[in-house]
Amino acid sequence: MTLTLPQLVPASYVDAHGTVRELDAATREVVSDLVVGRGVPASPVVCTPGEPAPALHGDLETLDGAPLGPVDGTAPEAGYYRLRQPDGTRRLVISAPARFPQPERGWGWAVQLYAARSRESWGIGEYRDLARIARSAQAAGAGSVLISPVHAAAPIVPQQSSPYSPSSRQWLQLLHIAVEDVPGAGDVDLTDLAERGRALNATRLIQRDVVWEIKRTALERIWAATRDRLPVEHDVWVASGGVDLQRFATWCVLAEQIGDAHWRAWPQEYRTPGGAVDFAAENADRVAFYCWAQWLADVQFDRACRAGATVVADVAVGFDSSSADAWVHQELVCFDFEVGCPPDRHNLEGQKWGLPAMSPTRLVEADLAPFIAMVRSALSHAGALRIDHVMQLWRLYWVPLGGHAAAGVYVNYPVDALLAILRLEAHRAGAWVVGEDMGTVADGVRETMAEQGMLGYRAALRLPVDQFPEAVMGASSTHDQATVAGTLTGSDMEDLRRIGKAADFTQLAGVRQELATAAGVDLTQPVGADEVARAVRAQYGRLSECAARVVLASLDDAGAVAERPNMPGTVTTWPNWCLSLPVPVEDLLESPLAREVAGILDARRAEDLAA
């Protein structure tokens, strides 16, 4: 089976209001040439182990090319294969269980990990802080902890603030490493760096550039003292990373030495991985340093994921155009476009996310290898996965660079294959999966998610909790939306007006009044800390009674934080992804309001156990 042009780049779509919108004809013509210009490859064969699969006729082999013999229309055991059909066509085969594993009914915390600093942190939330949160959550009866993405960033300044604009979705963020927990840290003097790092906790604004300089220096000291006596576990892990890890580490060294992650402006010979082989050999020690640093992050993240409640890892919708992933997979990327979303009632101007678009046809030609590696990496330790903007599996909205968000077009992706990969990797990891399905969602998406057992995502500040279906993860808001405190006090609307961001202020005022009514707060009187606490309790009281399978409480709400973590559509007018929690996370988790919220949500678990 091959996809036709209308299937890959449709001429219209149905917007969030149910209105059919014609897509920009000129943009569609350019995108069509990019996506289809080299031809459309045969789609992967998706099947269920042991079930009939009419397309499976020919010779089957492993991905390494080992022959497995002829197949006669019956799906093999779960895994990845290649099929060579009688006409010579070569197709990827994905044999996956029909449904995702399922979570138990329960509740959890949602946390921006960078913001969750403890007293021991060096200016930013760390993997050991995640372990503390997971232990505390489990002790309070929570079953899960949803975290912001921990994808890797470039090892240069300025550091990328957004966890949703990573340098790689396959590797981990080094800023979250707890330096004092690194093997060999006790063998060197880190006193000066520890003091500098902890001093950063005195200000609420996270200074990633300074954190990176301090932590990199500390890691270099430890590396110099221990690189000749690394444990065998390190050697095994680095070897298992193979070419992917070596390429990522090489890219890190190149970006560091050149001082710029924009690899398309590097010297010509370094603009492809193949051209950097000699560079990697000449800088073997520094390449090894970044491999070691990734091992440290992996070990600490694994420890955090095993500490208590199930950690739900968040997967970004893409990667930065000047990223390691873009450098490695540049043949698959269309750099003249960025992904985003068309205008809707929550974002009247639409959105552009600064992430380049990946061609679906080139991705199929690559046997979907980048997607498989990303999912496998995300589930190597975490017990569950949240897919940000789950529509990335079905389609992405491409906007020409420099163009208005309304001038984009939708491009469809091999959703059946991508879902099969997710189901296969989820079963291998014993993990459940959530798809963030808010905003403009195509017909049939939510039905397919429900049929396959992928949970949806709902936010109470967008949809009344009594309308939440059962098969979802429910929350008060997302990282892009107002907090309870920001809504009740009206400070969120003031922020929007101050920075000149377009919004439906009538709708926002209605949400504010509805929340105040539920909390018994008179908005004609001053709104202080007591009123905010009442609103937080009321909001999570309503969530505790909703049908959602898993309910999340935000640590921002437990800390009565008024500001949004991120203001979509802004770059410099809001401190996006840079605001820490107002108090050390260990104090916040033990605060009266956090304990009350935990008690309110844990009551639903107690009721289920009693039933």
From TrEMBL:
Coiled-coil positions are none
What are its GO biological-process terms? carbohydrate metabolic process
| Alphabetically ordered keywords of this record | Carbohydrate metabolism, Glycosyltransferase, Transferase
Enzyme kind, highest EC tier = transferase
Q: Which SUPFAM superfamilies match?
A: (Trans)glycosidases (SSF51445)
UniProt catalytic activity: Transfers a segment of a (1->4)-alpha-D-glucan to a new position in an acceptor, which may be glucose or a (1->4)-alpha-D-glucan
**What Gene Ontology molecular-function terms does this entry list?**
4-alpha-glucanotransferase activity
Q: Name one Pfam family in it.
A: Glyco_hydro_77
Checking InterPro entries in the record gives: GH, Glyco_hydro_77
Q: What is its EC number?
A: 2.4.1.25
Q: Which PANTHER family match?
A: 4-ALPHA-GLUCANOTRANSFERASE DPE1, CHLOROPLASTIC/AMYLOPLASTIC, 4-ALPHA-GLUCANOTRANSFERASE DPE1, CHLOROPLASTIC_AMYLOPLASTIC
Q: Which NCBIfam families match?
A: malQ
Q: State the family named in the UniProt similarity comment for this chain.
A: Belongs to the disproportionating enzyme family.
Identify this protein by name. 4-alpha-glucanotransferase
